[in-house]
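dumping this here before i forget
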Amino acid sequence: EKTMSASEEFERQYTALQNDQGWFYYADSGKISISGDDRYMWLQGMVSNDVMLLKNNKVDSLQACLLDATGHILSDMTITKIHEDDSALLLDLPRENVEKVLGILDRYLIMEDAELRNVTDEIGCVSIRGKREYFAPNTPEALAHLVLADDLVEISPEVQEVWRVEQGIPKYGAEMDQTVIASEAVGASHISLTKGCYVGQEIIARIDARGHTNRALTGMTIEGETLPKAGDKLFAQESDKLRETGRITSVVPSSPAADGKPIALGYVRHEHREPGSHVVTQTEAGQAVLSIAEFPFARKSAA
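structure:
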């Protein structure tokens, strides 16, 4: 049997993702359970999205953020029901944030009937055909039972990252952290503007009334030979000088959706985000030129 080259293997996995035939294990997924009669009402006042959509069976899962009082992101998360009998809620969030979030949420628990528990090691999470699935116990045997289908292809972390950047999906630790206001990184997928009060809501409502943030998450294609890196500052030409306008958060050296060009995600000031306009980095490696692009980046047709 012929061994695939690295490029052929990449193409096989990438095509599987395009065709919803991929799977991968969320190794960095942390989990918190919330049980008790007041869990919905209490969590509704904690996170940025409308938890009642879950309670009323309008959605199967919900993306949201936990914010501080100034609207900055303490963690993103996916919220689901753990059991079919709706006895508990599950917060699926970056593993690095579990202890921090547990501590913050616990401080807000006063008289409510709600109990928090770290269940990271008890419940596993896997992406199958683009959808999160949960399994317990969190063992290789239980995982294997979920992904036995012959037409599923396991997707490597490298291909996952290319796909994530192409789709413009922010990641905690790259595009999201406590220096980022939620409205800069995420929109209606994570934020409800109609649900009422929650921690950080006043700032988010004020930004919505104003129309936009000063900067926002932006897609870019990289022109030329110099490849920038995450953390590099971005500059835009204004009159006869360069003005700092943002920073790069993620770089992919070759993107199938951009005809093999390198692409990047980063934050760029609103006035410099017009698609087709250019920004640059100034580093010891030289000047990298980036062209503002709309994302998700255009996909090539699936094979």
